[in-house]
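Whether sequence alone determines local backbone shape is best considered at the level of individual chains. We regard such an encoding as a compact summary of how the chain folds. The sequence in question and its structure tokens are set out directly beneath this paragraph.
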Amino acid sequence: MDIEDQFSLEHLLFKERRCRTCGATKDLIEDFYLTRKSKKGFPSAYAYECKECTVKRVIESRKKRDPFADWCYPDW
């Protein structure tokens, strides 16, 4: 009796994860970023925030710069 016949890899991995930010349950591999390359395939290697929430967080937290704030007429 072989153990590989009884269990498949899909049974050992979590297929879905709940996003900490939005609370939606999404597919682990497609909707979450991989944070550690060395443990690819393990659920702990994926982020706890979905890709959509990560993009929103990064865009909102960017420093909003005025391109002309530091510019002044050259004093020749």
In short: The helical segments are 3-6, 9-12, 28-31, 51-61. The chain has a mean pLDDT of 78.
